[in-house]
Protein 1
Amino acid sequence: MAKPALGRGLGELLNGNGASETSTATETRTTAPRMSAGLSTLVHNAADTPPPAASAPAPRVVRASLLAADAVLTCGAFLFLLKQSSPDAISTVAALLALLFGGWLGWLGLTWGRSGNGR
């Protein structure tokens, strides 16, 4: 088994002889090291093969999901307040937060994927 580049001449350095002038530390390897499949994937040149592109959901699906979430939150907040005989401060704040969050989701649903040129 060959000595690694850092271990060559170590005995001579420890004995005080100094490194020999014909140090083999500058030698280059002629064979490529064997790598596992995972390591070769990490080391592989990214320019050769592009990574697989993640498919983004269609804007219609995102918009419909946001608008549906808005409707569910708004209806849920109204039903929650209607079922309360006398809503206290905590339930009122929770319903208002649900309405605000639902309104924000609805606004995102209406504006998602729209460009600034009016399309």
Note: Residues 59-111 form one domain.
Protein 2
Amino acid sequence: MPTWWKFGFVASLLVMVGGLAVHVGIAKPEVEVTHDVVMWAGENDQTLSWGWGPEELPCDIFESCLYIEVHHTDSCDKQLRIEFRLTDADDNFVASKELVVESPQKSEPAPIEIGDNENDFEFFHVGEVFCTAAPLSDTADL
């Protein structure tokens, strides 16, 4: 095989490999994610804003509870899904919880009791509140 064929073959191979690298780089660009991962969100779920509720309200459903005030629940036709986790006195993880309640359907902030009947935790860490059509829960699931 003549020397110029070898040179042409190597040059063609380098051009093809370079073109393939450019194609892969364009077809699958790297994306930097800058937000927390959402564990589950259905098609119709809508995130609602909330704030801490009154501290003086008694626990009606749970042994240990707190209240949050959820804003614009009138945009939820069915239920609210509230995600939270429990930690001990040293802020060690105890459990992740989810509570589904009927939507109060109010334009002003609505107080919602969240809680649990477990006794091995100290703090509630409330995550997100969603509009949902999930089945109701009268107690938070473990």
Note: Helices lie at 3-27.
Protein 3
Amino acid sequence: MLDIKAIRQNPELVASALLKRGMTFDQARFEALDARRKEADVRAQNLLAERKSASKRIGELVASGKSVEEAKAEVDSTLIKLAQELEAATVEAESVQTELNALLIETPNLPDERVPEGSSEDDNEEIFRWGEPRQLDFMPKDHVDLGELTGQMDMETAGRIAGARFSMLSGDLARLHRALIQFMLDMHTTRHGYTEVYVPYIVNATSLTGTGQLPKFAADLFRLEGDQEYYLAPTAEVPVTNIARDKIYDSAELGDEGLRFVAHTPCFRSEAGSYGRDTRGLIRQHQFEKVELVQIVRPAQSEQALEALTGHAEKILQALELPYRKVVLCGGDLGFSASLTYDLEVWLPGQSAYREISSCSNFKDFQARRLQARWRNPETGKPELLHTLNGSGLAVGRTLVALMENGQQPDGSITLPEALHSYMGGTRVISA
């Protein structure tokens, strides 16, 4: 959520920044609601002062010649009237504040000044490439065809079990999927200093609101039936970032680099709508797995933390010998809560294209304000908002796709990078 004080101080700047997202901020509505809220608050404060003053008037009225009974009756009548007016003013203030909160909670984060102009992914700016795509002397297959050749990817059975956009892996492909998770967790915990956490796969509405999925993206979520408002977690970002909700950390608890968490979870997304070829295979599923990185840091550290976190995701791609590129998202492609995002896109020979495998974002204090995630600044002694960041390190299914397509041989077998040999029990090739 945006800082309401910052909007009040410079609403034109906020409106201008949001235009980069292609969003028109309703400045007139905000100012009208804020003025009504202020007016109702002032009226309530004045009425409280009048009520306090009126309760002291009995002595004055008696001194002026009225009987005690008459004085009490007059004051009681005044107090009843003031109480009714105060209740109306309080209800008005609460009603306006609810409207104001609804406006703010639907307003996305302000883009960082480094975010390029643009309306779609076509306007994202490439800033780095690593590795050269392998030159194949045969027609490359995509991962679905390779999976069918090995007999270890079964979309038909998954469809009978659950429906469209689910998958079933078996044999070496299922083992490779598991090996990737373990490899990523080991890399991030032993080399990059993340603390592994195991978190709930079901989250409540408060948690989803804190990270920005609710209320705007309710249609993309799987909501559970029942008396309580529970959802299947769309990403480990939600439960892991909520570790800091309603907490005030001492500076010592944050250490030198802030908090670093890594978690492996399944992710569940409804994502109603058509994505063309992405509905085939593992690229866009209702259920998939990710290893997620979350950092919670002091504000002065968040820019450096984004570079570090993105670098940690890149190290996985490099260790797996997968060519990729790094792009900075334009305003029109930026996520709701993000201020600045780097996408890592891996080369897929089956599509002859780079495709997203990780998004690494700095949310600055946007999520922390919703979560009330704070730290006590030792210089001021006061609680201040933290900054939150996250990124996939990596999306497991898409990494599996990239390994299959980049490691494919003319006969449909798949060679595995050296980094995974020990995780695969010495297996170097998945045979067709």
Note: The longest helix spans residues 68-105.
